[in-house]
Specification:
This protein is of the alpha+beta class. The chain has a single domain, classed as T-fold, CATH 3.10.520.10. 28% of the residues lie in helices and 25% in strands. The protein contains nine helices and 18 strands. Strands 2-3-7-8-11-14-15-16-18 form a nine-stranded mixed beta sheet. A four-stranded antiparallel beta sheet has the order 1-9-10-17. A hairpin with a 4-residue loop joins strand 5 and strand 6. Helix 3 runs parallel beside helix 7, helix 6 runs antiparallel to helix 7 and helix 7 runs antiparallel to helix 8. The chain is globular and about 55 Å long. It starts with 9 loop residues before the first strand and ends with a strand. It is an enzyme of class 2 (transferase).
């Protein structure tokens, strides 16, 4: 399947023109009133940004607390950090169970839900497959069929034993690797929102490298406007917008993390059934949900499932909607968003068709 990184393909755009006097980045002691305070940092191998609107004198401190939480969770959940829970699980694959934090256990349990939804097409044990392809744009490696088959023998979430009573995870076969890259950012975004809400933040935008999570709406009680990226254009070109509040928006697509060999594109969302990048009619999926962990898991899951099965899955889950952009320039909307997605007819009416 899978994500070395989720895409930067969704950006929050606020149509209100904010008049801000002085520097607002993580400072709240200005002599003049600000519309928001914000801080941008680098965690999870991506740019993260938190904006609090209608701030008070504690808002910058709250943002710092949230950033610290992101860093702490990265130390636990990243497969690339020596000593993390996932690193220990990998090092002890085929040897013994490893006791993990409650956070790691929660994310692993969530991942199993999506594995069941997709009959294994969402699989956190694709770590060996991700390493084999070594996708690091513009570079990558196209494995041989023999290499793929050998590696696929180490990919099977059913060979990961989760013991909730003892809080342990065990990979049964040596060489297995569990990688939470396809779901961890969503979980962390939800944790950040919890911190903001606990500190009485009413209006905010959390953006973890494209995982956008809204806290409330604008200070005037209207919704935030979220742009859905055109996968065929540079970042910042939007097919349309959604106006909403308290919403997670996460996208997966084939157009940002990829490499090409002899004119063929190989992207980063790998199908654990074949070992190759998922190959179907979809270019991009955008998932709208209350929880970002759901958006993360479902955006990858539906991309691998394909249009028909992906839309069927989303329609079966309460309070989740999807926007599917296909290679033949069609936009498919699930039933709950058909009246709220505003398509940019002026700029894209001659390029895309909205299918309702």
């Amino acid at each position: 399947m899978y994500l070395l990184k989720k895409l930067f393909c969704i950006l929050a755009i606020i149509t209100t023109l904010f008049t801000i006097a002085g520097c607002t980045d993580n400072k709240s002691n200005q002599d003049v009133q600000q519309e928001y305070v914000s801080k941008t940092d680098f965690y999870l191998d991506t740019v993260v940004d938190i904006k609090i609107y209608n701030p008070n004198n504690k808002s910058a401190e709250v943002i710092d607390k949230a950033m610290e939480r992101i860093g702490a969770l990265e130390e636990i959940l990243s497969i690339h950090i020596e000593g993390s829970d996932l690193w220990k699980v990998k090092e002890n694959a085929g040897i013994k169970p490893v006791e993990v934090s409650k956070e790691t256990m929660e994310v692993m349990k969530a991942s199993l839900k999506y594995s069941e939804y997709t009959n294994g097409l969402f699989d956190v044990t694709t770590g060996p497959l991700v390493d084999l392809w070594a996708i690091n744009p513009p570079n990558g490696y196209v494995p041989t069929e023999e290499e793929l088959q050998t590696t696929l023998s180490k990919v099977n979430y059913n060979n990961m034993i989760i013991d909730e009573e003892n809080n342990t995870i065990f990979l049964k076969d040596k060489g297995m690797i569990a990688n939470l890259g396809a779901i961890a950012k969503g979980y962390i975004a939800d944790e950040v929102k919890e911190i903001l809400v606990e500190n009485d933040v009413k209006n905010a935008i959390i953006n973890l490298g494209g995982n956008v999570l809204l806290v409330g709406g604008k200070p005037d009680n209207s919704g935030f406007k979220i742009g859905v990226q055109d996968p065929n254009s540079d970042r910042g070109a939007y097919l349309g917008v959604i106006d909403d509040r308290d919403l997670s928006v996460v996208s997966s697509g084939d157009y940002e993390r990829y490499f090409e060999v002899e004119g063929k594109r190989y992207h980063h969302i790998l199908n654990p059934a074949t070992g190759y990048p998922a190959d179907n009619e979809i270019r991009q999926v955008t998932i709208l949900s209350k929880l970002s962990v759901d958006g993360d898991g479902l955006s990858t899951s539906t991309f691998v499932l394909g249009l028909k099965d992906g839309m069927k899955l989303i329609e079966s889950i309460d309070d989740v909607e999807g926007i599917f952009v296909t290679k033949d320039h069609k936009i498919y909307l699930t039933s709950g968003i058909r009246d709220s997605f505003v398509f940019d007819e002026v700029n894209y009416g001659d390029q895309y068709t909205v299918v309702k």
